[in-house]
Design goal:
heterodimer, A: mainly beta, 0% helix, globular, B: mainly beta, six-stranded mixed beta sheet, five-stranded antiparallel beta sheet
Chain lengths: 118, 113
């Protein structure tokens, strides 16, 4: 099956610093990737849709200047949490949409990044 | 937008019994319904999905049924095993060009030996 990697798996940073998270589709090209946030024992909350070669589309309530998304190639999307604060601590998961001739909606998830802001 | 409700929130079953999780959705334009299994601290794994042109799909011990008229779909796990213990999420999508999914709240399934 399709494989998605995410790096780093865990990061601890001081308040006010910026953190970059990478999401890669390893064996397929992904025009569209998605970024989710997941709180403990809760569901996946879609933050933004990342489109290769164009601006990301953010969900209502998500600050685009706070969560910068860049989708520079068909296999890489990055999420940068700028000026991180303790309330940004969470589990961030990306997914990549595998597109083929028939089924265009299948999303495969990365392993997630646990962000802790001190 | 789409709204997905999932029930129950927790489900305890005896090993060997069946487990059923139900979801309802609101957007009649949704046409893709995947189910994901997530173990603690790990990524969600796609276990089965169904598209609106079929009413049922089966893969070994797992099956999904879809009722488009009533806008609900269900996951059925038969002959449950301890390794089936996890959180299961349903999702609905396909109504937009990006393939966005709206997830249910999740069901914690515990299979006791």
């Amino acid at each position: 099956g399709a494989v998605v990697s995410q790096h780093p798996s865990r990061v601890i940073c001081k308040s006010g610093t910026s953190v970059k998270i990478e999401c890669r589709s390893l064996d397929f090209q992904a025009t569209t990737m998605f970024w989710y946030r997941q709180f403990p024992k809760q569901s996946l909350m879609l933050m933004a849709t990342s489109n290769e070669g164009s601006k990301a589309t953010y969900e209502q309530g998500v600050e685009k200047d706070k969560f910068l998304i860049n989708h520079a190639s068909l296999t890489l999307s990055t999420l940068t949490v700028t000026s991180a604060h303790p309330e940004d601590s969470s589990f961030y998961i990306c997914s990549a949409r595998e597109e083929d001739r028939f089924f265009t909606d299948t999303q495969y998830f990365g392993p997630g990044t646990r962000l802790t802001v001190l | 937008g789409e709204n997905v409700e999932q029930h129950p929130s927790t489900l305890s079953v005896q090993e060997g019994d069946s487990a059923v999780i139900k979801c309802t959705y609101s957007d009649s334009a949704s046409n893709y319904f995947p189910w994901y299994k997530q173990e603690l601290g790990k990524r969600p794994q796609l276990i089965i999905d169904i598209r609106s042109n079929v009413g049922e799909k089966k893969d070994q011990r797992i099956a999904v049924t879809l009722n488009k008229t009533a806008k609900h779909f269900s996951l059925h796990i038969t002959e449950t095993q301890p390794e089936d213990s996890a959180v299961y999420f349903c999702a609905a999508g396909g109504s937009d060009s990006w393939g966005k999914l709206q997830f249910g709240a999740g069901t914690q399934v515990v299979v006791t030996p």
